[in-house]
Amino acid sequence: MQALGRLGNIFLKRVGPRPSSKSGPKDTNRELARPTQLFRSQCLVGTFHKTGTVLMSRILKELDRQANFGIWNIARDVSEAVRWQVAFDNHSRFANESVDVQTMPCVVVIRDPRDVVISSAYYHAHAREKWLHLPSDRFDGQTYQQKINSLPDMASRFRFEMRNAAGGIIGSMLRVRAADEHTNTMFVKLESLVDDVDLVHFQLLFRHLALDPTYMLFALEIARNCSLFSNTYVTRNHVRSGRPAQWITEFDSALNGEFATLFPSAAERLGYLDEPK
């Protein structure tokens, strides 16, 4: 990978320097920054809870910070953004008449469903997300977080997640993966991205999104800097581990059997084998 200095020179020749942070408030600076046609057409990026939302959001935000091309967060903003090149949906629903997953370049990040269970169980035990702290009749007045923390061990928490939040995520991944409208969608495994030191999978991802080749090195350098394997990455509480195939050590035979009963062939349908390569 070539140095960022050369990438920066290529970028600045196309779009010019960003305004100085001394020139005014941050929002004003973004308005003054010249928008860049980073992608050749409007495109879509989707994730699910615990399948790379933080990673993809971080990459897109940093790209937009430097190129000012425009991101529309569909899940958060119902109204269409005034100017956007990438529509991001952390539920991969793309439920808006302004987007068309059949005709627009679309990438959806998925994850081994067994690792979704594990990641969810650890994260939901301490996260501050509002929904985790709302009392529920389903849990006899306890919040989701109180309920999962009341369970005696991690095996019990994994079983709880299979029947609750993680189970819903798995169901969503399976529905999207099998949907006819996603015939042209590129499904990318989170496991491929977190270990993508040579940036091979990121390059394929950007190509599918119709990134202007002029900006490929620029985009790849940002992807590298936003990834767990980069020395420049600053971890957050949302990210516990990017290690693939955690289920091999975390699940015993009973948990594997219970998962198979609840989600028949789910791993295989999402492209995962019983053993990692």
Defining key terms:
277 residues; alpha/beta; 5-stranded parallel beta sheet; 5 strands; disordered N terminus
Q: Mind explaining what this structure looks like?
A:
The protein is an alpha/beta fold and 277 residues long. The protein is built from 13 helices and 5 strands. The chain has helices spanning 4-15, 26-32, 53-67, 113-124, 144-150, 154-162, 165-178, 190-194, 200-208, 216-225, 247-250, 253-262, 266-269, and strands spanning 43-46, 71-73, 86-89, 106-110, 186-189. The protein has a 5-stranded parallel beta sheet. It is globular, with a radius of gyration of 20 Å.
Number of E-state strands? 5
Uncertain regions spanning at least 5 consecutive residues:
1-5, 12-33
User: Which structural category fits the helices and strands?
Assistant: alpha/beta
Number of helical stretches of at least 4 residues: 13
Distance between the termini: 26 Å
Please state the CA-atom Rg, rounded to the nearest Å. 20 Å
- Helix proportion: 40-55%
Approximate strand percentage: 5-15%
Order of helices and strands: HHEHEEEHHHHEHHHHHH
Largest sheet: 5 strands, parallel
Mean pLDDT: 86
Estimate the global geometry from the Cα principal axes.
Answer: globular
* Biggest sheet: strand arrangement: 2-3-1-4-5
Q: Can you lay out the helices and strands and say which pair or pack?
A:
Layout lengths: L3 H12 L10 H7 L10 E4 L6 H15 L3 E3 L12 E4 L16 E5 L2 H12 L19 H7 L3 H9 L2 H14 L7 E4 H5 L5 H9 L7 H10 L21 H4 L2 H10 L3 H4 L8
Parallel strand pairs: 1-3, 1-4, 2-3, 4-5
